[in-house]
Amino acid sequence: MKRIILLMIIVSMSAVMSFAQRDMTVEESYLQESIENMIIREQSRVNNRDQKFLALELIGNAIERGNRSEEIHVTLEYLGLEGILNRSSEAGRLINNFPDVRRETARQLGVLGTPEARDILLTLIYYETEPMVLQEAVKSLGDIGLDDNGRTISTIAWIFHKFHNTVPDNLLAFATIEAIEKLASSGIRNQAAVELLVRIADGPYIPVVRNRAMAVLETFRMGS
After folding, report:
1. Cα separation, 201 vs 196, whole angstroms
2. I need a surface site. Which of 13, 89, 110, 118 has the fewest CB within 10 A?
3. Distance between CA atoms of 165 and 155, rounded to whole angstroms?
4. How far is 133 from 81, CA to CA, in rounded Å?
5. Which residues pair with 82 in a beta bridge?
6. Where does residue 206 fall: left (phi above 0), alpha (psi -120 to 50 degrees), or beta otherwise?
């Protein structure tokens, strides 16, 4: 019954969004966003993978229209930490662990691009264990850019070394290279970034990953 009600709300929301193409007053715009946030919140809490992906699709549409409300941040934080910090079990079995949902959440946080989104990603990386989620989170940190206290690069370095010293992952290494390259455009060319690139270039990775690391190192050298 709850899913049917949610579906009816979503259909109604589609009509509202079509109506919203005309110029709206501030009050109408606020009401529209409030309804949208309510639907997203409720949809994300349904303990079903497909429903959560629908919530993420709605979030993507909301962000594209400029909705960067606190509720969007709260919902993305909930989805990003679900299954690793927010855990639900039945008969001793974890029932809300959806790594692909967390991966898409990490991507949406990068699109959101706010300092608050970056903080959520930094927390997610600390607790996450799935490489595919971590790859997306590292990419998103590169998209958002530097913070003032250096947590971004230190967290990327920490998670890279964690896998490098146990189970080296080519995709995570490549995501690390891309993030460093993007962060370099914001001015970061510090020792930690250089060390990461050297470890990858000399590490147990496939040639395309090692060559990419060497290419970025060369751009650092040419720009110094």
Report:
1. 9
2. 89
3. 15
4. 11
5. 86
6. beta
Computed on alpha carbons and rounded to an integer, the radius of gyration of the chain in Å comes to 20
Give the amino acid at 37.
N
What was the pLDDT predicted at 8?
Answer: 47
Mean pLDDT of all residues belonging to the chain? 87
Q: What's the pTM value of the predicted model, to 2 decimals?
A: 0.85
Measure Cα distances from 152 to 72, 109, 143, 180, 221 in Å: 22, 14, 11, 10, 22
| Residue 162 CA, distance from chain mean position | 20
Residue 201 has pLDDT above 80, yes or no: yes
Number of C-beta neighbours around residue 79 at 10 A: 27
As given in the structure block, the two tokens for residue 200 are 């990858």
Q: Is 102 exposed, middle or buried (0-12, 13-18, 19+ CB in 10 A)?
A: buried
Contact 47, 14 (CB under 8 A): no
Buried b vs exposed e over 145-176: b needs ≥16 C-beta within 10 Å? bbbeeeebbebbbebbeeebeeebbbebbbbb
* Residue 20 banded pLDDT, cuts 50, 70, 90: very low
Instruction: Convert the pLDDT of each residue in 69-104 to its tens digit.
Output: 999 999 999 999 999 988 888 888 988 899 999 999
Give the type of residue at 206. I
Phi, psi of 89 (to 5 degrees): -130, 150
Q: How far apart are CA 197 and CA 193, in angstroms?
A: 6
Instruction: Look at the block and give the residue holding tokens 């147990």.
Output: 204
Residue 135, token pair as written in the block: 């790859």
